[in-house]
Amino acid sequence: MASNKTLLMLPGDGIGPEVCNEVRKVLDWMDNRRAVSFDVKEGLVGGAAYDAHKEAITDNTMQDAMDADAVLFGAVGGPQYDNLGWDVRPEAGLLRLRKEMDLFANLRPAVTFDALLDASTLKPEVIQGLDIMIVRELTAGVYFGEPRGMQTLDDGTERCIDTQSYTKAEIERVTDVALDLARKRNKKLTSVEKANVMKTGVFWRQTVTDYHAAGDNSDIELGHMYADNCGMQLVRNPKQFDVIVTDNLFGDMLSDVAAMLTGSLGMLPSASLGGVDEMGRRKALYEPVHGSAPDIAGQGLANPLAMLLSFAMTLRYSFGLQDDADLIENAAQAVLSRGIRTGDIMGEGNEKVSTAQMGDAVLEELDKQAA
Ligand code: IPM
Ligand code: MG
Fold first, then answer.
1. Could you say which of 205, 227, 261 is where a domain stops?
2. Which of 205, 236, 261 is the last residue of a domain?
3. Inside any domain, residue 332
4. What residues contact residue 63 under an 8 Å CB cut-off, 6+ apart?
5. Do 143 and 249 fall into the same domain?
6. Is 252 assigned a catalytic role?
7. 166 and 67 belong to one structural domain
8. Which residues does ligand 1 sit against, CB inside 6 Å?
9. Domains in the chain: how many in total?
């Protein structure tokens, strides 16, 4: 069905294509059962794009991403691409999308499902009911700072540099997103840096403090934490957090820690959002937090729930379809409650299913819920 809602699907490498297949089923379901349809384009990214075009993403695909209302991204990378040149490595495709679409706010929720409490390595009481949101700055910091690279000093010494750099505006805009989210949640924001060691950390803390104070934010409790302590606190007592805002590199690490609290990377979605333009539109890319998992690719073993939940986030944040997003999230929950599991979240007495069977089980639950 023709639609004014455009989606670009970039399955990528490894398990990316398999988990994207399950989203296609849900797209068909929505078209048939909810009369919600999308114009879906597809493109190549990462190793798949390299194989076809010797680039991690082509200019054409980049343009499709810029034009789409939302991009659904699978995963990139694989051992066969490990020795490619820096500019064409699979990750370069993802980083180009983030940078050129200016997706500065990366939302990484870590939510535990009751049915999966046993899948976590932490004690159930530590993680039961956990619901935290990490907001990671995604287009600046050491990922993109200049200068970077190798240098040879006058005495012949070789050294290598990466640069951590933040402008005030870059910190303020991600703080703004985090404050908004905190307001819709439990009204608690923790800003994370290394102000005890890094000048950018001092600046980050001051900028967040000033931004919070300057606006109408007295309803939001703001706290600060050093990144190393935050890593420790996430494992010790994660429920003390509501929203965490942090820079690109600390956010990369802390979101992996937070993800594992929930038991499996295979469960976690993410959204990367740009600024709101004059038309009220914001560029957005949605991707599961898990990577391409080349070791299990192509075998029907991958857990498609993170990808399906990323699609639910797409409905929620890009299309305002809260009810449809709820349907998918509830369906995933119901499937887990029935004891249906992919290998990564298997527990005693569960029924082990393939990627496609998990997708089908979600569809079955969707049918029930929408009936
Ligand atoms: C992530 C990943 C990426 C990152 C890689 C694939 C470039 O680890 O999205 O967390 O480091 O940002
Ligand atoms: Mg990462």
1. 261
2. 261
3. yes
4. none
5. yes
6. yes
7. no
8. 91, 94, 252
9. 2
Give pLDDT tens digits for 188-238: 999 999 999 999 999 999 999 999 999 999 999 999 999 999 999 999 999
Q: Model confidence over 17-71: pLDDT tens digits? A: 999 999 999 999 999 999 999 999 999 999 999 999 999 999 999 999 999 999 9
Pair (281, 315) in one structural domain: yes
Please answer whether residues 229 and 194 qualify as being in contact, where contact means their C-beta atoms are separated by less than 8 angstroms. Answer: no
- Residue 188 alpha carbon to ligand 1 centre in Å: 26
Residue 82 counted as domain residue: yes
Range of the domain at 287: 1-109+266-371
Specify the ligand 1 atom closest to the Cα of 287. Answer: 9
Beta strands at 131-137 and 70-75: parallel, antiparallel or unpaired: unpaired
116 within domain boundaries: no
Whether residue 308 is found in the same domain as residue 321 = yes
* Number of the ligand 1 atom closest to the C-alpha atom of 256: 10
Nearest-angstrom CA–CA distance, 325 and 130: 20
Determine contact, residues 125/101, Cβ cutoff 8 Å: no
**One domain, residues 182 and 224:** yes
| CATH number of the domain that residue 154 is part of | 3.40.718.10
Name the nearest CA neighbour of 86 among 163, 13, 152, 149: 149
Our answer to whether residue 256 is catalytic in this structure is: yes
Does the predicted model carry a pTM greater than 0.85? yes
The pairs formed by 280-284 with CB atoms below 8 angstroms and a separation of 24 or more are: 281/69, 282/318, 283/66, 283/101, 283/102, 283/103, 284/69, 284/70, 284/71, 284/103, 284/314, 284/317, 284/318
Q: Kindly provide the residue ranges of all beta strands, DSSP E only, lying in 130-242, ordered along the sequence.
A: 131-137, 145-152, 158-163, 188-193, 221-226
